[in-house]
Specification:
The protein is built from 15 helices and 13 strands. The chain has about 450 residues and is an alpha/beta fold. Helix 8 packs across helix 10. The structure holds beta-D-fucopyranose. Beta-D-fucopyranose (FCB) binds next to loops.
């Protein structure tokens, strides 16, 4: 039967993971401590005091995981490199065993006909660098460039798709602003320079990768939500503008050569977060940040509705749909597929990236395996189907979307939530490390096979 929804030829169907969330083996083979090791080992930071010490034990089970990916028919795999596995002290001495791990992983993927997409920074900064000031200081950007050089020399002959940072907004605002993520600092006068050094190191890394990896395509992954105002009141509309400026435009505008958005500079100045203005910007920085990239990666999960006229006048984000599992995932994130069409259209028509990828999208539901070993996670399948339709609409409208990476291959360590949230299309039994392909995974396999549904 012909598909109703047909994707373009060569559309890349993949899954995404991140080193700290799946690898475990946190101090094996010379790996250095990361900020996430330190943060999770400090009681009280993570639900249930869970840690990534073992996680999915992927560092040992990677061959099995590649077989699983092959069975699912995946065309591509987005994973991240643990910087402290490669450079335990952040810079300087290279840990050959760390390099070997990723080199073998890449070979295994290529043998299985799966295209590797490498993310250089999915948040696990070497703790030594944090001790020297972390992302708020410029020397961390320099160390990132050194790390990028080492890894792109080692893998650049085989890896042709590179993502510099994953969600720098989350690192800056949640790592140094609200302190919900590692390193757990709560100081916006640090968070803003952190955002600048993340962006600066992105731009510098683009050229380094191109030098070391012929015909490579390089991009950055930004998180984006579909912001809506609950009413047409000035205050609600302003809340949408302000949130979008903080979480998206602050990062996208400089990458596309527009500099930092002036409305947000004004907001931060008012907040007292820029006591010395933007003095961390040095001549030439903004040009470096705007180094041309081959693609833009977007992580989309949900929408946010902004309502300010709450009883205590405290601006709140609320959701409008009935509280059923079909409309709400267990993260409390709304299933809002129209937002995916919306963000794709908006980003393409506003910024004109050459090419786009959805580098993450998916849903948390904790449906367990039944006695037959099947996982009937129909709500995840529903989430995926509706988002694929939404993505298809954007392609029909002319958005050059080249691929989609489902978050995630495996249930894994979900940051401050620990193991409570399960995003995988494969169930992981953390006691035995047994994997069970969920019904959504089987459905995804068929979509990939037919390039539609
Ligand atoms: C994103 C992160 C990813 C995962 C998903 C659920 O913000 O990039 O690591 O935790 O959320």
């Amino acid at each position: 039967m012909a598909n109703k929804i047909q994707f373009p030829e060569n559309f890349i169907w993949g899954v995404a993971t991140a080193s700290y969330q799946i690898e475990g083996s946190w101090k094996k083979h010379g790996k250095g401590e990361s900020t996430w090791d330190r943060f999770t080992h400090t009681p009280g930071n993570i639900r249930n005091n869970d840690t990534g010490d073992v996680a999915d034990d992927h560092y040992r089970l990677w061959k099995k995981d590649i077989s699983l990916m092959k069975k699912l028919g995946l065309k591509a795999y987005r994973f991240s490199i643990s910087w402290p596995r490669i450079l335990p002290a952040g810079r300087g001495k290279v840990n050959q065993k760390g390099l070997d791990f990723y080199s073998k992983l890449v070979d295994g993927l290529l043998d299985a006909n799966i295209i590797p997409f490498v993310t250089l920074d999915h948040w696990d900064l070497p703790q030594v660098l944090e001790d020297e000031g972390g992302w708020p200081v410029r020397s961390t950007a320099e160390a990132f460039v050194e790390y990028t050089d080492v890894i792109s020399r080692a893998l650049g002959d085989r890896v042709k798709n590179w993502i510099t940072h994953n969600e720098p907004a989350v690192v800056a605002w949640m790592g140094y602003g609200t302190g919900i993520h590692a390193p757990g600092l709560k100081d916006y006068t640090l968070a803003i320079p952190a955002s600048h050094h993340l962006l600066l190191s992105h731009g510098q890394a683009v050229s380094v990768i191109h030098n070391n990896s012929q015909n490579a395509e390089v991009g950055i992954t930004l998180n984006i939500s579909w912001g809506m105002a609950a009413s047409n009141s000035r205050a609600d509309l302003d809340a949408v503008r302000s949130t979008d400026g903080e979480w998206f435009r602050w990062f996208a505008d400089p990458v596309f050569g527009r500099g930092y958005p002036s409305d947000k500079i004004a907001d931060y100045t008012k907040m007292g977060a820029l006591p010395n203005g933007m003095d961390f910007i040095q001549p030439g920085d903004m040009e470096i940040i705007a180094t041309p990239i081959e693609f833009m990666g977007l992580n989309y999960y949900s929408r946010h509705v902004h309502r300010t006229n709450t009883p205590d006048n405290d601006p709140q984000i609320t959701f409008e749909q009935p509280k059923t599992p079909e409309h709400w995932t267990e993260m409390g994130w709304e299933n809002y597929p129209d937002g995916l069409t919306g963000i794709l259209g908006r980003v393409y028509f506003n910024y004109q990236p050459r090419k786009l990828y959805i580098t993450e999208n998916g849903a948390s539901y904790s449906t367990p395996p039944n006695e037959k070993g099947n996982v009937p996670d129909e709500y995840r399948t529903h989430y995926l189907r509706t988002h694929f339709i939404a993505m298809h609409k954007a392609i029909q409208a002319g958005v050059p979307l080249a691929g989609y990476f489902l978050w995630s291959l495996l249930d894994n360590f979900e940051w401050s939530w620990g193991y409570m949230q399960r995003f995988g299309i494969v169930w992981v039994d953390y006691e035995t490390q047994k994997r069970y392909v969920k019904d959504s995974g089987k459905w995804y396999r068929n979509v990939i096979r037919k390039n539609g549904f």
